Amino acid sequence: MQNVTDSFVSLGYWPSAGSFGVNTDILATNLINLSVVLGVLIFFGKGVLSDLLDNRKQKILNTIRNSEELREGAIEQLEKARARLSKVEMEADQFRVNGYSEIEREKLNLINSTYKILEQLENYKNETINFEQQRAINQVRQRVFQQALQRALGTLNSCLNNELHLRTISANIGMFGAMKKVTD
To answer: Considering the entire predicted model, what is its pTM?
Structure first.
């Protein structure tokens, strides 16, 4: 190992004119090496790094643009949904109002028709009562007339003789015939 380091050290003493040598100063060589490596990296890596950053920037911008478009679409859908909701609420209110008015109208129609039916029933009842009263009055008149006639016939039969009796019967038959013509 000693021989290897001696050969490098002995190379350090060679004259630099036209020959290649190794610098054994570690601090100077590291700075030179680092500057060469950084220079090469910056020179060749600059395009790659800027391309990577540009691609990343474009992806971020596209994502932001897509997010904005989705946000605008969501806002439009929200507005449409709100408009539909308000329209449906108005229709529901209108149906509710129409339903209440329809119920009230049907209720009034039912009450009116019930009153009309009650009036008709009252009229039928009154007509029936009047008819039955007239019939009862007519029956009573007929009985009174029959009884009066029977009494009159009984009184006439007892007071009259046969000839007078026959004349009275003839006159009564004539009166009944005249009454029948008047009532027909």
So the answer is: 0.37
